[in-house]
Amino acid sequence: MKTTKKAPLKKVAAKKPDAKKAVVKKTLAKKEAPKKTELKKEISNKQIIKQVAVKKPEVKKAEAIKPVVQKEEKKPAAPKPVKKTLTKKKEYKVAGPPAIPLATKISSAGKKLYTMEYVIKSSPVILYDFVTATSNMAQWFADEVDRSRDDLYTFTWEGNSQTAIVLDEIEHELVRYQWVDGPKDEYFEFKVTHTEITGDTVLIITDFAFPNDMKDAQFLWDSQIKNMIQQLGA
Length: 234
Prior knowledge:
The chain has 234 residues and is an alpha+beta fold. The chain folds into 2 domains: 24-54; 100-232, START domain (Alpha-D-Glucose-1,6-Bisphosphate, Chain A, domain 4), CATH 3.30.530.20. It is 28% helix and 25% strand. The protein has helices spanning 19-54, 124-129, 134-137, 214-232; strands spanning 100-106, 112-119, 144-147, 152-157, 160-170, 174-179, 188-194, 201-209.
């Protein structure tokens, strides 16, 4: 038997894709690609807008700021001016001020009452002793001074004596004498006081004199007070 030879199979060549079609697909794919990306972007933007719309933070209403009203501080009332009656400080090393006659007081003998003030640097107690104690008065007021039990003082000047009685006496403040042989409405007085402002010790002398003898009376007291100041060491 004759064997028949089979004809060799022809390889069927794979059909190559049409180049034109491939190019068209690519171009279409490129055109469609930006559209898809644009769609994705739109979708993502819409999602973001939705999220933003949903998750809006609650905005608290700002509370109205109340204006701070400052209270006006009450100013303290100005103190009322205190009226002070100032007394002039009188300092006299030797002579005192002019005798001040008190016209309302005239004795039966026609003498006028007058006063004189002296600022003396001394304590009131010591100064009072100089117008009451016999030993101290003998240093400035008279040459000799004696005191009896009846409150009688005997003052001696150059051998001439004169007696006075104590009419009134306040310890460390005032002593008033009256001449035994003189008018009953006349006297001479020593008053110890002090100034309110400076606190200086002041001796006020009260006496009677005729108007024409006022300067001589002042001169006599000035010389006697000068002796007192020397003895006090003031």
